[in-house]
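PROTEIN DATA CARD
Card holder: Kinetochore protein Sos7 coiled-coil domain-containing protein
Chain length: 305
Origin: Chaetomium fimeti
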Amino acid sequence: MSRPTSPHKPDQQRAAKVLQALEDLQCTSGDSSDEYTIIKLSEPISSSSASNNNNPTPAPARTSDVSTASLDTPTPTSLEADLAHYRELFAKLRFSYVEQVTKEKFIRAIVGDPPQIVSAQENAELEAGNAAAKAALKRLKTDVAAMVAELETRGRGLVARYEVVREELAVLRALPAEIDGLEERVRDLRAQHALLRAAGVGPEMSMPLGKTRALVEGRRRELGGLEREVEVVGGQVPRKRKEVERLRGEVAALENRRANSEAAAREAKRRRENAQGGVEDELEARGRWYRASETVLRQVLDLKG
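Structure generated from the sequence above:
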C-alpha cells in the first residue's frame, strides 16, 4: 500500500525550487556579499572612457579632500554629505572655468593681430543666443532634477524591496527545516493518538479540533465561575474565622465543664461503690455525727426543732 502524500509536500517543493533559483541567480551575478556602490557603478563608465583614450598610460589617481572611506561602506547620511560636497566643488569648478575662459577670450581679443572688434549687432545676437541657451539649459536642469528625484524615489523603493526580499529569503531558507519538523511532530501526534485509542482512553482524547476547542472553552467558563465563587468565599473568610475562634472558645469552656462533670461523676461513683462494700463514707459519717450532736444539744437545751 502506497504511503499518502502530505498536503504540504507541493508547498515545500515549490519553496525549495524558489530558493534554488535565488541561489543560482546569486551565483551567476557574482559573490552574494558584494554590494553596489557609487564607485562600483562608475567602473563601467570609467573603463569605457579609458579604452577610448588613445594614451594607454593610466591616469594617476586623483583624490579630493573628501575621504573615500565613506564610499567603501556607504550609508544614506554619508552619501548625502558626499553629494552635497561634490555639488559645491562642481559649482566652484564651473565658476573658475567660466572666469578662465572669459579672461582668455578677452586677452586674445586685445592682443590679437588684428584685434577683434565686436559690433553692437553681434553683441545683440550673442545675447539672444545666450538667452536661448540659458532657457534650454534651465529646461534641461529641470528635467535632470525631476529625473534625479524620480531616481531617488525609485532607489529608496528598491532598497525597501531589497530588505523585504532579504528577510523573506531568510524565512524561505528556514522554511524547509520547519516544515520537516512540523511533519515529524504531526506523525508523532498521530502515533500517540493511535496508541491512546488502542488503550481505550476516554473519548475526550480523540475528539476533533472543533469539539476540542468547544470543550476547552466550556472548561474555561467553568473555571471562571469557580474563580468568581472563590473570590466571593474569600471575602467571607475573615468573618468566618472570627466565628470559628468564638466557637472554639465556647467549645473549650464546654470541654472544661464536661471534664469537671466527668470528674465529679467518677468521684460519686467511687463513693457509692465504697459505701456498698461496707466502708463508711467519711462525709456520711460526719453528717451522722453532726445530726446526733444536734439532737443531743436540742434535748439538753430543750429546744423544739
